[in-house]
Amino acid sequence: EVQLVESGGDSVQTGGSLRLSCATSGFAFDDYGIGWFRQAPGKEREAVASISLRDGFTYYKDSVKGRFTISKDNAKNTVYLQMNSLKPDDSGIYYCAAANPVQTLLVVSTGLHSGMEFWGKGTPVTVSS
Q1: N vs C: which end of the chain shows fewer Cβ within 10 Å?
Q2: CA–CA separation, 59 vs 13, rounded Å?
Q3: Closest to 96 (Cα-Cα) out of 127, 54, 125
Q4: Pairing mode, if any, of strands 33-39 and 11-13?
Q5: Cα–Cα distance list, 71 to 57, 74, 93 (Å)
Q6: CA 120 to the chain's CA centroid
């Protein structure tokens, strides 16, 4: 069974930091890409960042560039999202999702509404001022 399990969400104040984890199992980790997405109440889901699990190629949404870092640990089949200098607009449910790496980059970079194959259930992040 394919599983993606997010963890690390919390409530922090503006300027704080969090590290989210996406632990995966049940698929060939190195053959996929992982995207991080977030959704706030009443708003559409938006892509945050992506990484190719074979070569480590990364992509970031402009709004998080310089503040967030996506990384991977292939030995643990886990992807991380380090979030620094958090702002209230960063609040939402954060999801990780998997697809082939080209499709992952396409979805995350263009804002497509579908295309990821596997999804986690999400972890909440709240940034208060």
Answers
A1: N
A2: 26
A3: 125
A4: unpaired
A5: 10, 10, 19
A6: 10
Q: What share of residues in the chain are helix, strand, coil (percent, to 5)?
A: 15, 45, 35
Q: Contact at 8 Å (CB) between 118 and 2? A: yes
78-124 confidence digits (pLDDT tens): 999 999 999 999 999 999 999 999 999 999 999 988 899 999 999 99
Q: How far is CA 99 from CA 16, 31, 72, 80, in A?
A: 30, 9, 15, 16
Give the CA radius of gyration of the chain. Answer: 13
Going by DSSP bridges, is the β-strand pair 68-73/78-83 parallel, antiparallel, or unpaired?
antiparallel
Question: What distances in angstroms separate CA 102 from CA 30, 44, 71, 116, 119, one per listed residue?
Answer: 13, 23, 17, 11, 17
